[in-house]
Amino acid sequence: MTPAIQSAVKHLRTHDPFLATIIAGTSATPTLVAHTDYYHELIGSIIGQQLSVKAAATIQKRFKGLFGDAFPQPEQILQRDVEELRAAGLSYQKAGYIQDLARRILDGSVHFDTLDQLSNDDIIGELTKVKGIGEWTVHMFLMFCMGRLDVLPVGDLGVRTGIMRLYGLETLPKAETIRIVAEQYKWHPYESVASWYVWQSLSNMPKS
Fold it and tell me: Which value, in Å, is the radius of gyration of the alpha carbons in the chain?
């Protein structure tokens, strides 16, 4: 457990008795480790949308197989038409999304080299320009790729379900209610870690 995660756990234990119970009941460690392979991560996120981990891994392997088992550069992706990408098992939509990401990288409308200098909101604004990348995908990217500890994924079904059960709510909370819970129990600046423990409470850990 990194010093930052240790600080987060101590903070949440102190301020949130509900999460303190979950933290005490698990030996698992929050998996919020930053890496900088942003391009690969986003391609993987698009491929994995609405698929099981196993199915996504199979399609990603086939996708790489189209390019000699190496992860393709953006220009290589744009040299293939949608039907060729479909041969890997991608839907028309996902093939189009991947090509849109590649196109935006090449034309400079998406900049990975300065991404870590931006705020969470600015990163959301930058990446949601890409077709097929919504706020939820960027929230997962911020947490599990960039290792940001202050992300509150208000649209995630697991977080909504976990908060409903953990805090005794009668219905699935909407974004504003989730923000109120986070504020009431002083999650900031460790919203990502709090959310991780909410997922842990469901034994339903998300995949990056």
Answer: 18
State the burial class of residue 77 (Cβ atoms within 10 Å of its Cβ: 0-12, 13-18, 19+): buried
Q: pLDDT tens digits, residue range 78-136?
A: 999 999 999 899 999 999 999 999 999 999 988 888 899 999 999 999 999 999 899 99
Rounded CA-CA distance 7/122 in Å is 26
Prediction pTM value: 0.86
The helix (run of H) or strand (run of E) holding residue 99 is: helix 92-107
Q: Distance of CA 146 to CAs 4, 119, 182, Å?
A: 14, 12, 21
Tokens of 160: 């909504």
Structure tokens at 88: 């890997």
CA 110: distance to chain centroid?
18
Contact partners, residue 157, CB within 8 Å, separation at least 6: none
Element (H, E) at 14: helix 3-15
Q: What totals of helices (H) and strands (E) does the chain contain, helices first?
A: 12, 0
Both tokens of residue 1?
């457990």
- Residue corresponding to tokens 């690969």: 40
Taking the C-alpha atoms of residue 97 and residue 192, their distance in angstroms, rounded to an integer, is 27
In 10 A of CB 35, how many CB atoms? 12
CA gap 105, 137 in Å, rounded: 18
Q: Are 104 and 110 in contact (CB under 8 A)?
A: yes
113 three-state secondary structure: coil
Active site (catalytic) residues: 156
